[in-house]
Amino acid sequence: MPTPATSAACPCGGASYASCCGPYIAGDALPPTAEALMRSRYTAFTLRDEPYLRATWHASTCPADALFADEEKVHWLGLEVKSALRLRQRKAESADQAEEIQRDSVEFVARYKVNGRAHRLHEVSRFVREADKGDGGALRWFYLDGSFPE
């Protein structure tokens, strides 16, 4: 699977891959927020990095089947995060902040082409932050599932 040059713009829209999603995908750092995890997962989809996607998918919802088909040719065009800032502001005002930190949602639109035809994926992804049983119990974010607004 190809990796962007360290100085190249990050597929998620960040300044450079090396300072954005690169350290998360390489395993050198953990995404500190649900939004950072969502962005890194989008980048991993553009790179077809199935091991990273599985490592960041909650065990209770991770599919057993392969995530990519060999014949599937998807060209990712861009990512727009729609509601992460609003969610952070709402959390800052929450009286029960400790519980809020453990769960989060990020609404986004990802644009892509399949066989030259444009598509968009509008999703509200749910994330949970809990101890990673395979990493000495370090707290980390996991993708749980998503819903698709109309």
UniProtKB/TrEMBL annotation:
Entry-linked SUPFAM superfamilies: NTF2-like
InterPro entries referenced in this protein's UniProt entry, alphabetically: NTF2-like_dom_sf (IPR032710), YchJ-like (IPR023006), YchJ-like_M (IPR048469)
Span of domain YchJ-like middle NTF2-like: 33-146
Pfam families membership: YchJ_M-like
Family: Belongs to the UPF0225 family.
The protein's name: UPF0225 protein NCG91_10925
